[in-house]
Amino acid sequence: MATSARRGPYFCGIDAAMDVVAGKWKSLILWELQHHGTRRFAELRRGLPGVSEKMLIQHLREMEEDGLVHREVYRQVPPKVEYSLTEHGISLNAALVLLGEWGTERIRRIGAEKVSVSISADVASDVAADVAADVPTAVGR
Amino acid sequence: MATSARRGPYFCGIDAAMDVVAGKWKSLILWELQHHGTRRFAELRRGLPGVSEKMLIQHLREMEEDGLVHREVYRQVPPKVEYSLTEHGISLNAALVLLGEWGTERIRRIGAEKVSVSISADVASDVAADVAADVPTAVGR
DNA sequence: ACCAGTACGGACTAATTAGTCAGGTACTCA
DNA sequence: TGAGTACCTGACTAATTAGTCCGTACTGGT
User: Fold this and answer.
1) Which of 1.10.10.10, 3.40.50.970, 3.40.50.720, 3.30.300.30 would CATH assign to domain B13-125?
2) pLDDT in tens, B89-136
3) Which residue among A15, A95, A100 places its CB closest to the CB of B17?
């Protein structure tokens, strides 16, 4: 098993929560999925400037194993896979809101730069791209 | 500069908050200081079973730089240093409470083990150990 | 004299995590 | 026939993070 996975024993709840959020891009993936509801692999990649495909898929797989994201495979050509948050993913995001506010305050305090993840810019193109045939089929790796 | 320190640019608040909490023991240090108010170096080490001295001091220094913990040096022999949370550290901990609850729920869900950090056991010995002379002097490294 | 305890600092190594790059599938369009 | 698209997989390497071990300076107890 190449992917990390610790899954206990944990010292406390924070420790357990940090375990699933640890990873350079996981919190960003959570944020992306929260804000867009459902995203395709390539959309996520574009929304996370600088992420490598390998890391993105690795994190997505781990988060799927941890029950945070749902993976829906559409059997069509070219392939289409949609990722969305599960119930647990949504509740985790809710628990992260306060932390996000603290972080925003910290950014203001120390005057750090903030890279702009252009959300408004590519929403339009996404809507236009969703015209193809659907019908999901639960197929494994 | 050997110690990490990223401090931006950040994608969002969560990213910024994660930056200061990232590190195997940081959330535990936060927890310890929150529950005991003030702790000496050796007390922290005993409270975090498995931590190496090097990691503990490295994390403490980073958290001090990030304005999360306050370091009070008492000029006496043997040396005595007390660590406590600053205002920012306390507010960060407050922001982590929800996350901790989510993690506790997750531990229950997946049935992970939980190592017991004996808090009740060594409180008594701490109280007994605080009899020596004090008078803090703000001295650098 | 010698060991234990206090709070570190630094060199070196091990482990973990992330990144690069070359494919691979399975089908469509020109 | 070859290119292009979308979603990956795996080998290899780089970077980051953590751990081990030893040293400092000083004192109190045996």
Assistant:
1) 1.10.10.10
2) 999 999 999 999 999 999 999 886 777 654 444 443 333 333 334 445
3) A100
